[in-house]
Amino acid sequence: MTNISKIVEIGAGDFQSCYSRKFLDTAAEIHLIEPNQLFYKDLLKNFCDKKNVKCYNVAIGDSYKFVKFFNYGYCSWVEGCPSFTATQINFEDEKVDIEKHYKILATEIGMAPITIIDHGDIDYLSINCCGSELNVLS
Q1: Which residues share a beta bridge with 58?
Q2: Given 4, 5, 39, 89, which residue has the most CB atoms within 10 angstroms?
Q3: Strand, coil or helix: what is 85?
Q4: φ and ψ of 85, to 5 deg
Q5: pTM score, whole prediction
Q6: Rounded distance, CA 47 to CA 50, Å?
Q7: Integer angstrom CA distances of residue 114 from 55, 96, 104
Q8: Beta-strand (E) ranges in 24-135?
């Protein structure tokens, strides 16, 4: 795949396993989408000087809106689109101290449709959303 001009990575995380690493400092446009604020800050710190990299701190969904985002480190999720990790937590159990034991921090983030960057010209699309991939695709 040498003729790649546009790469989109949804759930870019800490960028360690991203395919687009191979295309830094090339002519390819790299779009890194990461709703987790901690990973997003790392992306900005490490790649803000790259002319071909754009970072977005949003979740991808069906419309423009604000949604509740649950930060569970490497496996975070948007309310209504639970990841595998979220399905393993019994939120109704009174013995579960969510804030302390699971270190879950709920914040509100923006959600946008992929059309913010997709104009039918994506050459490579990666979706890494900890089990919520189908929600992103729909």
Answers
A1: none
A2: 39
A3: helix
A4: -60, -45
A5: 0.78
A6: 5
A7: 13, 35, 26
A8: 29-33, 53-56, 59-60, 65-71, 77-78, 105-112, 124-127
Per-position b or e across 101-128, b if 16+ CB within 10 A of its CB: ebebeeeebebbebeebeeeebebbbbe
Q: For residue 30, which of 55, 57, 58 has the smallest C-alpha distance?
A: 55
CA dihedral 113, 129, 135, 90 (to 10 degrees): -130
Q: Which of 123, 40, 36, 27 is nearest to 76 (CA)?
A: 36
Of residues 111, 41, 108, 112, the one with CA closest to residue 71: 108
Q: Is 61 left (phi over 0), alpha (psi -120 to 50) or beta?
A: beta
* pLDDT value at residue 39: 87
CA 126 to chain centroid: 10
* Residue carrying structure tokens 């490497």: 74
Q: Mean pLDDT, consecutive 10-residue segments, the chain of 138 residues?
A: 84 76 88 89 86 91 86 71 58 56 70 89 82 54
CA distance 71 to 87: 14
